[in-house]
Specification:
The chain is an alpha+beta fold. The protein is built from 7 helices and 14 strands. The chain binds 5,6-dihydrouridine-5'-monophosphate (H2U) and zinc ion. Zinc ion binds next to loops.
Length: about 350
Amino acid sequence: MGEFNFSDHPHRRYNPLTGEWVLVSPHRAKRPWQGQIEKNDIKILPFYDPDCYLCPGNIRAGGKINPKYTDTFVFSNDFSSILPDTPVGGINEKDLFIADTENGLCKVICFSHLHNLTVPEMKQEKVRKVIDVWVNEYEELGKIDFINYIQIFENKGSMMGCSNPHPHCQIWSQKYLPVEIEKEQKHQENYFKNHNRTLLADYLEAEISKCERVICSNNSFIALVPFWAVWPFEAMIISKRPVSNLLELNDKEKDDFADIYIQLTIRYDNLFEISFPYSMGIHQAPTDGKQHPEWHMHLHFYPPLLRSATVKKFMVGYEMMANPQRDITAEQSAERLRSLSKVHYKMHNLN
Ligand code: H2U
Ligand code: ZN
């Protein structure tokens, strides 16, 4: 078998942000694949859909009417999973039956008044407007006493359970730290105590010098496939400056944020020449009134696709029962994403 190397031999990798492991089986990526590599037809969506509950001027469930907005539009989720006025309550019976009231607010943010315009097809100044809305929401929700954490996330594509192609994201803000955040809080805090630098500042420095997993970058942000990626084409966007939340970004950084979000999603779309599905989330400091120098703002992208427009990676069996696992290495995925065109495939197909 020769000496161990990451691209041939089964191994496990550690995620320092969560303390979890991923099993990597690169030798399996070499097995023959007999499934077809199909391309989906480009679905032509209208720029306005009279049946879409997010389009300007349309009626939402419950009867509210959207304003005739241009660019972005924010509203309270008509089916919020967390509510602001739930009475305080809970139990702890014998350390076995433990429950607690959760309080919070849920919102929906439309990225554009145009039904068919996704982030990789938007102009940078339009995506910047989305970022300005995120900044504003983080600031305003963060001022609310009982809100200690604000999760901004985007579900894109029906494969990810997204109910509507009209480009949008959601915000769920709440009293308790969600489990993923609790893990990252603990690990970033420990790292900062021991090194007096953010975990991701040191990680980023190492990744920049290695250059193996970087997909693309600009002056303020880097997009990369993390060393510990679980999903085949998982990526992170990390701010070069260790800002703990959106409010600390300066004007130029907000423009660069829009740019990197577009750059990464163009490459995603170009990978299989489809509107690439994923779940994206912004991880940043809790809004619990404390200082959080340990927090380093970043975005996670978890796309389900494995090798074509329809073949997805299933997190089942061993992954459910034991441990996440992947075949293709993070380095191989990064290499593929890096080598794709920077121009959206639809623009190519026009020529
Ligand atoms: P997705 O991003 O997963 O598609 O969810 C869209 C959200 O929009 C979902 O949380 C909300 C749903 O509750 N929604 C409204 O607030 N009003 C509506 O009229 C339909 C859907
Ligand atoms: Zn629409």
